[in-house]
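Please describe the entry underneath.
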Amino acid sequence: MAKEKTKVVEQVEISVEEKLKLLFELQTYDSEIDKIKTLRGELPLEVQDLEDEIAGLETRINNFAEEIKDLESSISNKKNEIKGAEGLIKKYEEQQMNVRNNREFDSLSKEIEFQTLEIELCEKRIREFTTQMKEKNEIIEESNTDLEERNGDLETKKSELDEIIADTQKEEEVLITNSKEIQDKIEPRLLTAYQRIRSNARNGLAVVTIERDACGGCFNKIPPQRQLDIKSRKKIIVCEYCGRILVDDELKAGKKKPK
């Protein structure tokens, strides 16, 4: 059993050179995926922003529509109150025809005056509610115009995005599959380091080659002795300026390290 376990460990152990090759290959696939995402540009964000704006406009329109319904209900209630007050005035006026003394007449007159004031107050409220309804209807009309424009913009942006996705989807799926296959071959600790470097790098490059004696990521000069260490592929070396993983040009070309 001990021998079998040792054999399994030996199968998964890979050299530093192989690790560097896997990292560079992973970077190649991830960079191609980045290019496809760059091709899409800001379209996905623009589509999301338009969808959010449309949802906001729809909510606003619905809220104003509900407020208008409430105002219509309030106007209806006030009209009913006016009818009730008018009915009372008519009743009190009829009663005035049959009063027995001035005190009863004055009392009914006060009731009529009170109901008349109630009618005036209701009519004032109706005018206020009507004005509010008009303002809200104007806002709804403007919002509907905006909504129609935004829906048109969204349809255009979605069409552009769908066209780009249709052109690149198959290629992207292959690249993502290849990237995942490479990731499975890299030890978790090293993969985590790669992903951390990549997320912090402005251009998404975590693994770079030496170009004209300089780091291919930040372009700072690399001392000759350090370049020899990188070419030996005996350990993973990072740029002391930007923290990117450095590989030599010959590894990029798939050549064996010099003996």
